[in-house]
């Protein structure tokens, strides 16, 4: 296995305001852009050439990663002029692939944090002779996902979109967002128009008698599509619950980047990250949270399961619980923000103006 496609073109609407200025794969998790973790894990599995299918804020990726040599990779970038969906994005980058028609090509969604055994997925694909192989994972409540039932040999038998009734839930196996395609299959995806692999390509292949193989891997898996999930994923990387060779430091209760200024009596726990050039004042307590580059947390503030955007300012004694503070926002002293509240980039809340907010 030498090449892969990474789908990183989504707008990250559910993650706003984190994605107003930054594409979702570039939002820092455990001290580096989330995409860094995916690239590092692919390289560790033997991948050498990766094509990034970009769209939203596409200009951000190449200046940061360049040609990929710093990660031991050869990276290329292809930008969609109009959104093409997952299948359309795959087809749109096909000309940059080097594989022969029968060779396997790895494909990853750019918002999944996983401990998937990549090499095992490729081995499954080869040994079963599949046209496409899918990473499947099991979830307790599959109603928000597409179900993928398989037979006793692991061969996919159907694709069932977001069941709601108990009768419709025939399996707990879901599409986990990583695939191996034979190169020849990629070339059959229609070019120049939006295509969904989940709703069009996979069901169409199944109807045509193609061999689609599922491999259940129930190691760590998390869809980082919401701010709460993103904060949790970052903490799990720091704590070592989610594997990545790209975490810039030893796993533990906290990750403080080199240029961060953290008061000696500030308490950082639960996988908290203190980003570059951020300042955390005396007596502050931060648990399971992300403080991005250049942010300021004043003395006595208490922060739990929250994300503080780049350059944001959190006033003294302010309480954040499950909050998302956009880049450059200023939260005055003695505020209390809870329950999933999101504060937009550049917003300014005076001291003591908000005591509590429930999820909207």
Polypeptide structure, described:
The chain is an alpha/beta fold and 360 residues long. Helices cover 18% and strands 27% of the residues. The chain is built from 7 helices and 28 strands. The protein has helices spanning 34-44, 61-65, 85-92, 118-128, 183-186, 197-207, 227-239, and strands at residues 3-7, 28-29, 32-33, 49-54, 74-79, 104-109, 112-114, 132-138, 173-182, 212-216, 221-223, 254-256, 261-262, 267-269, 272-274, 279-280, 285-287, 290-291, 296-297, 302-304, 307-308, 313-314, 319-321, 324-325, 330-331, 336-338, 342-343, 348-349. The strands form 6 sheets. Strands 5-4-1-6-9-8-10 form a 7-stranded mixed β-sheet, sandwiched between helices. β4 (49-54), α2 and β5 form a beta-alpha-beta unit. α3 (85-92) crosses α6 (197-207). The termini are far apart. The model has no long low-confidence stretch (mean pLDDT 91).
Tally of helical runs: 7
Rg measurement, Å: 21 Å
| Structural class estimated from helices and strands | alpha/beta
Q: Which regions have little confidence, pLDDT < 50, spanning 5+ residues?
A: none
For the secondary structure, the number of strands is 28
Mass-distribution shape? elongated
Strand order of the largest sheet: 5-4-1-6-9-8-10
Classify the helix fraction into a percent range.
10-25%
N- and C-termini, Cα separation = 45 Å
Average residue-wise pLDDT: 91
Largest sheet: 7 strands, mixed
Q: What portion of the residues fall into strands of 2 or more residues?
A: 25-35%
């Amino acid at each position: 296995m030498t090449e892969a496609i990474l789908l990183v073109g989504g707008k990250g609407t559910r993650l706003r305001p984190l994605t107003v200025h930054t594409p979702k794969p570039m939002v820092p998790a455990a001290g580096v852009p989330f995409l860094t973790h995916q690239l590092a894990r692919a390289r560790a599995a033997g991948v050498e050439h990766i094509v990034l299918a970009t769209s939203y804020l596409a200009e951000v990726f190449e200046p940061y990663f360049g040609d990929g040599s710093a990660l031991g990779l050869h990276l290329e970038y292809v930008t969609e002029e109009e959104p093409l969906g997952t299948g359309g994005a795959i087809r749109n980058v096909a000309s940059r692939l080097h594989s022969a028609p029968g060779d396997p090509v790895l494909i990853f969604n750019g918002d999944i944090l996983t401990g998937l055994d990549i090499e095992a997925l490729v081995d499954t694909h080869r040994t079963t002779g599949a046209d496409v192989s899918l990473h499947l994972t099991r979830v307790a409540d599959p109603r928000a996902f597409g179900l993928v039932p398989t037979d006793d040999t692991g061969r996919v038998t159907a694709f069932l979109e977001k069941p709601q009734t108990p009768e419709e839930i025939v399996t707990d196996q879901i599409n986990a967002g990583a695939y191996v395609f034979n190169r020849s299959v990629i070339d059959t995806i229609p070019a120049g128009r939006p295509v969904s692999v989940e709703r069009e390509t996979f069901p169409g292949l199944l109807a045509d008698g193609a061999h689609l193989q599922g491999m259940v891997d129930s190691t760590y898996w998390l869809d980082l599509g919401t701010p709460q999930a993103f904060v949790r994923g970052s903490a799990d990387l720091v704590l070592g619950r989610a594997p990545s060779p790209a975490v810039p430091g030893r796993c533990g209760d906290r990750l403080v980047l080199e240029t961060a200024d953290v008061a000696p009596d500030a308490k950082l726990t639960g996988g908290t990250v203190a980003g570059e050039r951020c300042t955390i004042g005396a007596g502050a307590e931060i648990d399971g949270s992300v403080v991005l580059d250049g942010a300021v947390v004043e003395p006595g503030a208490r922060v739990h399961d929250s994300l503080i955007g780049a350059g944001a300012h959190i006033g003294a004694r302010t309480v954040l619980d499950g909050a998302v503070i956009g880049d450059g926002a200023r939260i005055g002293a003695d505020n209390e923000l809870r329950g999933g509240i999101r504060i937009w980039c550049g917003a300014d809340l005076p001291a003591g103006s908000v005591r509590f907010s429930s999820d909207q």
